[in-house]
Specification:
Immunoglobulin-like; signal; DUF4232 domain-containing protein; DUF4232; four-stranded antiparallel sheet; single chain
Length: 178
């Protein structure tokens, strides 16, 4: 039969206390590292003030329509973008056309843009007649929110029309893709 002595109990408490201190220290260190990464990422995030946005050349094929949405760093410092832009269509006076684009694919990696460099996401819809779902009215503007931004930017369209109820956007990738 095993009996616990006060010496055994004290040793067990010291080991448990040491383990708790080690776990706490590791947790705090990881939290500080994560906070530093988040602060750096947030501080070098591209904003509407240092970006321009435009639509690239439309690619039509196999019943699909794909249009690059190109972001260019017009600032004087390198900045980062990561994730999906928010995209909706409007008429010139701002009346919404249809619903905002849904996200397609995974988030992807951060894209670092030096001044003058570009990144792109791809807008996707289908050709008229591919589906029984009717097309939306033609849009005159694309309202865009860069990932992490609450400030909208706009780009003109050549009468972009969403058909088949399908309007989605990919995550950002390096380059202009057009």
């Amino acid at each position: 039969m095993f009996s616990l002595t006060s010496k055994t109990l004290r040793r067990g408490r010291r080991v448990a206390a040491g383990s708790l201190i080690a776990v706490t220290a590791l947790t705090l260190t990881a939290g500080v590292a994560q906070a530093q990464t988040s602060t750096k990422t947030a501080s070098d995030r591209c904003t509407a003030d240092n970006l321009s946005v435009r639509l690239g050349r439309t690619d039509i094929g196999a019943g699909n329509i794909r249009i690059p949405l190109v972001f260019t760093n017009k600032g004087k410092k390198t900045c980062s973008l990561r994730g999906f832009p928010g995209v909706s269509l409007t008429l010139k006076e701002g009346t919404p056309v249809g619903k905002p684009a849904t996200r397609s694919g995974s988030v992807g990696s951060a894209v670092r843009l030096k001044p003058g460099q570009s990144a792109h996401a791809v807008l996707h819809t289908v050709n008229d007649g591919v589906s029984d779902t009717p097309c939306w009215s033609k849009a005159q503007l694309v309202r865009v929110y860069a990932p992490g931004s609450k400030e909208a930017m706009t780009a003109g369209t050549d009468g972009l029309r969403v058909c088949g109820g399908r309007f989605d956007v990919t995550t950002l990738k390096p380059g202009a893709a057009d």
